[in-house]
Amino acid sequence: MATDRRDDDSALSASRTDDDYGSHLERSRTVWDRWSNWYEMSERDLEPMREATIDRLDLHPGDRVLEIGCGPGVNFERIRCDIGPAGELVAIDYSPEMVEKARERVETRGWENVEVRCADATTAEFDDPFDGALATLSLSVMPDIRRATETVYRTLRPDTTFAVFDIGTISDGPARVLNPLIRRFLRWYANWNPDGDVVASLEAVFDECDIVDTYMAGTMYTVVCEKRDRV
User: How many structural domains compose the chain?
Assistant: First the structure.
């Protein structure tokens, strides 16, 4: 009977986890659909940080690139400048409104080598490998950061880079007293995942992982991760 009780407890825990995952995913869809018309501020004010993150990918003409949590496509033009018309950019986002705006951007500019999909980064599948991957202000709002990171690792070729620009709490110093307020704001504004740890997830999955830039008292940061050839 004890074994049966443990099995029941395990099933209940899994059910709660699945419910939490689904609830977070749907909140993200709602939140980012709401903010899809107000992304210009992020596009303008955070452009230098996003550009510096893309620089870390060291892309070349003809490269195939994955962007997860692409939003309305604020990084598309810069990535296309690096990969040229012979390259390919595949971008995914779970918000239908964000995807619609990203597709409008692509159509308006006539970019034939950019594909935008409405998909969950934790379960998305791709037919061909990528030469680099990017996530800007998106990984920390996903319901399962570790699984999303594993998706990226699985889709990359060996000896390639995943560059992440993201936001979190203050890691040290007296300003940490502000963290409860920061968490509350990020949860409201972006459906930030308070139980996730972007850096820890990246370090657990990728072969090399380094924080290369920090901004605004460390609340914003860029992490560069490498997938190495293990053969």
Answer: 1
SS3 label, residue 194: coil
Helices and strands (DSSP H and E) totals, the chain:
8, 7
The CATH number given to whatever domain includes residue 116 is 3.40.50.150
Q: 164 in helix, strand or coil?
A: strand
Q: Of 28-37, 47-56, 165-174, give the lowest mean pLDDT range.
A: 28-37
Higher pLDDT, 216 or 129: 129
**First-to-last CA distance in the chain?**
47
Closest by CA position to 220, among listed 185, 181, 175, 168: 168
CA distance 73 to 166: 16
Please name the helix (run of DSSP H) or strand (run of DSSP E) that holds residue 220, with its range, or none: strand 220-227
For residue 11, pLDDT over 60 is answered with no
User: Does the pTM of the predicted model rise above 0.85?
Assistant: no
30: confidence class by pLDDT, cuts 50, 70, 90: low
- Please give the residue range of the domain that contains residue 43: 2-227
Query: What's the order of all strands across the beta sheet hosting 64-68?
Result: 114-118, 88-93, 64-68, 130-136, 156-167, 220-227, 208-215
